[in-house]
Amino acid sequence: MLVWLLRKVMADRGIWTGAALARLLREKAGYELSAPSISALLNEQPKQMKAETLDALCTALECTPSDLWVHTPTYHKGA
What is the dihedral of CA 39, 43, 44, 46, to 10 degrees? Predict the structure, then answer.
């Protein structure tokens, strides 16, 4: 299972709002995300993500993809 940690990474950096994240994405990564897209990233775990968006988040937040996602293996009985 993958766990999305965007809110934690933002909090660790003192970023508390979607508007602040949008501003940071524009300033540091030259990347624009709509308010609904940012809201979705903040309020639910993404089912898919463009590599370009992940790259912009990592650039803006000065982190790596492994800071934003944590993988815990899911074991299935009999597998």
Answer: 30
Structure tokens at 34: 């709509």
Listed residue (29, 28, 7, 27) closest to 18, CA to CA: 7
- Segment (H or E) for 55: helix 51-61
Can you tell me which residue has the tokens 């660790």?
A: 12
The pLDDT profile of the chain, 79 residues, written as one tens digit per residue, is 889 999 999 999 999 999 999 999 999 999 999 999 999 999 999 999 999 999 999 999 999 999 999 998 888 777 5
pTM: 0.89
